[in-house]
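Postdoc handover notes: sequence design on the structure in folder B. Input tokens:
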């Protein structure tokens, strides 16, 4: 592929030159709204989570809510500002201090006077905020129940080509998909602002049965929740399904949380302890009751949960000691083996938090404890020596933060009931009106284990890792922005596919230019060095070697007029560039987004080409989707992809979406593997969604 790759490299340079020419010719026309930084964060999250996209759409729901009902900066409290997830803790403290000192804001762009706030950041959050002198009112529970909004969302998704799992002879095959190929999702939701919410969610994955066989009750997954805020001393009350977020993610963090990205200052975990849950994911949530009480500077949370979870059950007939070898996290119940794993393990969880917050100081004590029906006993592989095991487990921590002038310090010190330690400490500094710094140090012992956590670490879970992260964000002018980070880490013990202690590093540099509301172009270089087993000669011991990976991306977004936006990306990737297994990857796409003002219809289309040597040089790209949904496919081999999204508002209270996406692999007649194998050179996905508001 090397010859064709360098041809594409020349093509890339040519495209970049065309982009510059295109920008020069159009700079005086009207803008394109830049792609949110959230897209890059979600891409990185998918890449570092074993290519599994999150099904938790709560953040997308929140952002859409803030578009419909913006946060009023004149009376917003700290917890509301945290929900935006793009404002740092230091910026929040500076805004509250400025408001206390000078009174209410008169105009949005008065925010430029707040230390740490600048034009580019204000533009990023402009759709979600407002300034208004009206006081914040907390309606009674009865008023909330009467004046809320009801919505019903229905979504169906299907891959049109039938895979091997649907075509096998069910009389002879041991493993197959007995259900229909449609994925179904239904959600009924009642909400009054952010103060009251309740609803029911139901989901069926493709291949799962529906009202027959193993799923005689219909959908494979049901969820219900009731959540209310700010009723007297009760800050939050959760019944049914909910999530819990504690400290900096060492003890428990079930909500969406981002890691390394071009948003180099977003390193602190920020969210309320209790949050409602109504997404399609079947794993990361609690089922029971939780309550948060608040009195002046003190806040206390307690919760209890009991639910059945999926696990790989092993009947030990020799010792008469049944156990589970692993907890299953896919949420799939299609084949006989997957159905057999459903709800095998019983999990009882309780915990809580007590915190003190006054002015710019915060300290909290956190704890969560699990009890299981069957002991967890993972395989005897060496890397599993310190894995979570037994019938009970506990995590406990102290988290803290303090803001002093232009610095914000935060952290969490955690331990388990077996005295395994973990620490995270971070610092945000605004050194100048145009320069901000971030630092984070973590030291997590090889034996520290936790469930349902998401700390700021290189690994998916906080375990067996030491590291130091440093980031800098520079705004030399209002139209230029430079973001960079360096992260150096090591793993003291073995990991899956890494048969030795290792070390690695990760660097990123991104330069963005946004001269006006119409145009934004950014260019990003990223370099990563991480070790992995490499044993092509089949040696007795697996050699562990460094596999470096570099990528360069340039993206342009431009608003052609009030209705049309053009967006394009070119990205090149080098894997093990000077090594024995050298690979390259290339991806480019072009989007046309149509969103007219005061029209009932909108849509977008993408055309994309990608080529990589193998899965090792795979690439990712965020895709627009139907409302409350997103897609980040993994791309490898050689192919073309296109998709079309259409939205039509039938009435003011009834909207419909259609999405058609197809990936074509020239020269192949087989794609996928296992039961998902398709004997074609293309894969086509159709998605329909409708929302009724009443």
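Designed sequence:
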């Amino acid at each position: 592929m090397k010859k064709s790759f360098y041809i594409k490299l020349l093509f890339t340079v040519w495209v970049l030159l065309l982009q510059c020419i295109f920008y020069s010719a159009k700079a005086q026309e009207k803008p394109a709204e830049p792609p949110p930084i959230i897209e890059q964060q979600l891409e990185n999250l998918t890449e570092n989570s074993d290519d599994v996209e999150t099904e938790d759409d709560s953040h997308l729901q929140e952002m859409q809510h803030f578009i419909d009902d913006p946060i009023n900066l004149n009376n917003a409290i700290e917890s509301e500002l945290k929900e935006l997830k793009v404002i740092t803790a230091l910026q929040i403290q500076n805004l509250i201090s400025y408001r206390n000192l000078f009174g209410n804001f008169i105009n949005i762009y008065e925010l430029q006077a707040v230390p740490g706030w600048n034009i580019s950041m204000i533009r990023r959050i402009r759709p979600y905020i407002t300034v208004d002198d009206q006081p914040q009112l907390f309606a009674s529970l009865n008023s909330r129940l009467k004046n809320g909004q009801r919505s019903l969302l229905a979504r169906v998704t299907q891959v049109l080509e039938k895979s091997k799992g649907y075509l096998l002879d069910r009389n002879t095959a041991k493993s197959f998909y007995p259900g229909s190929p449609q994925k179904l999702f239904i959600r009924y939701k009642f909400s009054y602002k952010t103060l009251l919410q309740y609803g029911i969610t139901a989901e069926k994955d493709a291949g799962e049965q529906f009202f027959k066989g193993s799923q005689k009750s219909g959908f494979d997954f049901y969820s219900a929740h009731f959540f209310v805020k700010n009723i007297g001393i009760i800050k939050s009350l959760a019944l049914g399904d909910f999530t819990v977020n504690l400290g900096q993610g060492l003890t428990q963090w079930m909500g969406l949380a981002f890691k390394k990205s071009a948003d180099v200052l977003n390193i602190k975990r920020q969210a309320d302890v209790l949050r409602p849950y109504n997404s399609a994911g079947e794993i990361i949530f609690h089922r029971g009751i939780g309550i948060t009480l608040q009195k002046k500077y003190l806040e206390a949370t307690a919760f209890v949960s009991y639910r059945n979870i999926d696990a790989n059950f092993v009947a030990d007939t020799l010792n008469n000691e049944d156990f589970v070898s692993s907890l299953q996290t896919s949420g799939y119940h299609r084949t006989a083996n997957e159905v057999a794993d459903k709800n095998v393990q019983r999990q009882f969880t309780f915990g809580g938090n007590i915190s003190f917050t006054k002015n710019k100081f915060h300290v909290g004590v956190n704890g969560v404890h699990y009890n299981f029906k069957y002991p967890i006993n993972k395989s005897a592989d060496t890397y599993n020596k310190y894995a979570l095991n037994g019938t009970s487990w506990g995590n406990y921590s102290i988290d803290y933060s303090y803001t002093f002038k232009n610095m914000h310090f935060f952290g969490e010190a955690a331990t388990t009931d077996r005295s395994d330690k973990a620490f995270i400490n971070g610092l945000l500094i605004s050194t100048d009106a145009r320069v901000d710094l971030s630092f984070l140090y973590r030291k997590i012992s090889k034996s520290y284990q936790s469930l349902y956590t998401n700390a700021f670490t290189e690994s998916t879970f906080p375990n067996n890792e030491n590291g130091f992260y440093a980031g800098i964000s520079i705004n030399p002018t209002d139209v230029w922005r430079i973001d960079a980070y360096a992260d150096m880490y090591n793993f003291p013990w073995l990991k899956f596919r890494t048969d030795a202690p290792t070390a690695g590093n990760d660097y990123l540099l991104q330069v963005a230019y946004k001269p006006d509301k119409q145009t934004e172009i950014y260019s990003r270089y990223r370099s990563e060095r991480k070790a992995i087993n490499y044993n092509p000669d089949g040696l007795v011991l697996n050699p562990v070697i460094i596999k470096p990976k570099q990528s360069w991306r340039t993206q342009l977004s431009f608003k052609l007029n009030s209705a049309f936006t053009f967006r394009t990306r070119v990205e090149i990737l080098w894997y093990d560039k000077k090594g024995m297994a050298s690979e390259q990857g290339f991806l480019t796409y072009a989007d046309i987004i149509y969103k007219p003002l005061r029209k009932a219809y909108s849509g977008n289309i993408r055309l994309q080409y990608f080529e990589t040597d193998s899965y090792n040089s795979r690439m990712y790209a965020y895709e627009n989707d139907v409302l409350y949904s997103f897609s980040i496919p993994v791309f490898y081999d050689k192919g073309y992809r296109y998709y079309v999204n259409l939205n039509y508002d039938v009435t003011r209270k009834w909207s419909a979406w259609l999405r058609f996406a197809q990936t074509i692999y020239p020269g192949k007649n087989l794609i996928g593997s296992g039961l998902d194998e398709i004997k074609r050179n293309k894969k086509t996905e159709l998605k329909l969604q409708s929302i009724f508001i009443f």
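Context for whoever picks this up: The longest helix spans residues 2-26. Don't rerun without checking with the PI first.
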